[in-house]
Design a protein that fits this description.
The structure holds two protein chains of two kinds.
Chain A: H1 2-10, E1 23-34, E2 37-48, E3 52-56, H2 63-70, E4 78-83, E5 86-87, E6 90-93, E7 96-99, H3 102-109, E8 112-115, H4 127-138, H5 143-156, H6 172-184, E9 190-194, H7 202-217, E10 221-225, H8 229-235, E11 238-243, E12 246-251, H9 253-256, H10 263-269
Parallel strand pairs in A: 3-10, 3-11, 8-9, 9-10
Antiparallel strand pairs in A: 1-2, 1-4, 4-5, 6-7, 11-12
Helix pairs in contact in A: 4-5, 4-6, 5-6, 6-7
Chain B: H1 3-44, H2 47-62, H3 65-78, H4 85-110, H5 115-122, H6 127-157, H7 169-178, H8 183-213
Helix pairs in contact in B: 1-2, 1-4, 1-7, 2-4, 3-4, 4-6, 6-8, 7-8
The chains are: A alpha/beta, B mainly alpha.
């Protein structure tokens, strides 16, 4: 709670202000350098609870890296990440922040659900086993409970009849819906989508976007890196535009998809 | 042939087959364990250790097995270390078979799609659990066919141990040939034993892969 109050004070640039809703994900001074290259440049963002944020921008703008920093799949060189007020990947030490152990980091990661461009399902496991694997590993409930919840999630993404299928027997769209169910099985506080429909043809992409739209409507906090401008415009409450590792603009879709948007963004959106 | 000599003939071949099988199974088991350790080292150990593993693998695969047998048998006795022909053969066979098995395991590890590693990290799954439930099952599936294939070659290679007088199938065969029996009959019998044993190995592979094919 206190962290959220601070964020609004820290914000120097008024154009980055978001609607006043309690933040689920907060990024402060996030930077990532790889081999002298600056991939992320001092990113400050505050993403509200229960809302969907779309991150758009040209290739190589750091969208995916930013998303991967939120669950520490990519380690930022500087800055802080908070999910629901909790510091991710770091803890306060005597001389500033120190990295946490792998074990603690696993706990942090369970609070975010990640959906990848290439689905990344476990190939030797059935649909049900894929969804049950992470909850079983973290022993958060009994096997029967976990199985029941997994079945519900699989039904929710419309694949109840594919319980015992292996990933290789599913279409790309079905695999991605299972990947969403698998991420939801950990009951994450926020869902991260990394170009979740880029590897799919428009028809299969639609069925995945439909599941994502429903999730958004149910009040899941979602951060979506996407090239689907239609989806961003319809579903997201705010859009982050990135270029060359920096956040250029944060705005509501109506503002961004309009003639009054900055020249660079209009050029990118071709409006 | 009299009944007595037939029984002697059969019992000698049974002994030869048993010795060949012992050499095969003992080599396969010990070499597999070493190969598993080498694979873990190759995946997880620091660079100098990985480099040593690769050097060993290269050396073991490029040296003719017969040289390894001679080194193990005559080399050890030259150093005043007298070991039985079977023990020497086992050492030599394990030395090169471990390298071949290691290469198969390494290739099958590389065949496990990497994107799953990232998914496991993102889901907060502990590494050991991921390795045992995802990586190893997928490695075994990829490795099964080449593993059995290499083992059939290994069975044929056990015949080389006759050169250091291990009483295996070919050693028994040449014993009978030198004592004046019909060479074609003897070679035919020896050949049939190898064919029969290899067919058994191949059918084992068929059984393994049909079970895995369910996935």
């Amino acid at each position: 709670m206190t962290g959220i109050a601070k964020v609004s004070n820290i914000k120097a640039d008024d154009s980055l202000e978001l609607p006043k809703v309690e933040a689920m994900v907060e990024l402060r001074g996030l930077s990532l350098d790889i081999a002298g290259q600056s991939i992320l440049k001092n990113v400050d963002l505050s993403l509200p609870k229960g809302q969907t944020t779309a991150i758009i921008g040209p290739s190589g703008s750091g969208k995916t890296t930013l998303l991967r920093c939120i669950n520490y799949l990519a380690r930022p060189t500087a800055g802080e990440i908070r999910v629901d007020g909790q510091l991710i990947g770091q803890k306060p030490g005597k001389t500033g922040l120190r990295p946490v152990s792998e074990r603690v980091l696993r706990g942090h990661r369970r609070q975010t659900g990640m959906v990848f461009q290439q689905f990344n399902l476990f190939r030797n496991m059935t649909v049900l086993e894929n969804v049950m694997f992470a909850p079983l590993a973290s022993k958060q409930a009994s096997r029967a409970e976990i199985e029941q919840r997994a079945s519900r999630l699989i039904a929710r993404v419309g694949l109840a009849h594919k319980h015992d299928a292996y990933p290789s027997q599913l279409s790309g769209g079905q695999q991605q819906r299972i990947a969403i169910a698998r991420a939801l099985a950990m009951e994450p506080k926020v869902m991260l989508f990394d170009e979740a429909t880029s590897a799919l043809d428009p028809e299969l992409a639609r069925e995945v976007l439909e599941v994502m739209r429903e999730l958004a409507q149910e009040g899941m906090t979602m951060i979506v890196v996407t090239h689907e401008m239609g989806f961003a415009r319809e579903v997201a409450q705010q859009i982050v535009f990135m270029e060359q590792g920096a956040v250029i603009e944060v705005a509501a879709p109506d503002q961004l998809f309009s003639a009054s948007a900055p020249e660079r963004i209009r050029h990118f959106l071709k409006i | 042939m009299t009944i007595d000599s037939t029984i002697f003939f059969l019992s000698m071949f049974a002994k030869g087959t048993t010795n060949a099988l012992f050499l095969l199974v003992a080599t396969a088991l010990i070499a597999s364990m070493i190969a598993a350790v080498l694979t873990v080292l190759d995946v997880a150990a620091p660079r100098p250790v990985r480099w040593l593993v690769r050097c060993y693998s290269w050396l073991a695969q490029t040296t003719p097995p017969l040289i390894l047998l001679f080194v193990a048998f005559y080399g050890s006795s030259a150093l005043g270390w007298f070991i039985s022909p079977m023990a020497a053969a086992l050492c030599a066979f394990v030395f090169f078979a471990a390298a071949y098995y290691f290469e198969i395991l390494r290739a099958s590890f590389n065949g496990v799609p990497r994107d799953q590693f990232e998914a496991a990290r993102a889901l907060g799954i502990p590494p050991h659990r991921f390795v045992f439930k995802v990586v190893i099952p997928q490695m075994l599936k990829i490795a099964a066919a080449p593993y059995i294939g290499r083992t059939t070659v290994l069975l044929k290679e056990t015949s080389l141990a006759s050169a250091i007088s291990v009483p295996e199938i070919m050693n028994i065969t040449s014993g009978f040939v030198y004592s004046g029996s019909n060479p074609l009959l003897l070679i035919g019998v020896a050949g049939l034993i190898y064919i029969f044993l290899n067919l058994a190995l191949i059918s084992l592979e068929g059984r393994l892969s049909s079970r895995k094919a369910a996935q």
